[in-house]
Design brief:
Elements (H helix, E strand, L loop, with lengths): L14 H11 L4 E5 L11 H7 L3 E6 L11 E4 L2 H16 L1
Parallel strand pairs: 1-2, 2-3
Amino acid sequence: MIKPNVVLFGESLPSNVFQQAIDELSSADLIIIIGSSLTVYPAAALPSMALNTGARLIIINDEATIMDHQADVVIIGKSGIILPQILEELKNIDS
């Protein structure tokens, strides 16, 4: 059986992965949350941790989250549709 390198529902997040995320947040200028309801902990705590270190927050999700009021940018929609649109706009900026 082959298992993807993801955390499935009901599984615990490996502690070393969570600690690495916390370490990276200390120097982050921006955190982008994509496709998360921000209701499953401990990962749901990461945006608040980033904000506490001065990072900016962008949330892209198909429904509102409990962190929307603290985000610098909130985009409501399906990430599979929104992300290609963002990439296309970024290409237009560079040209």
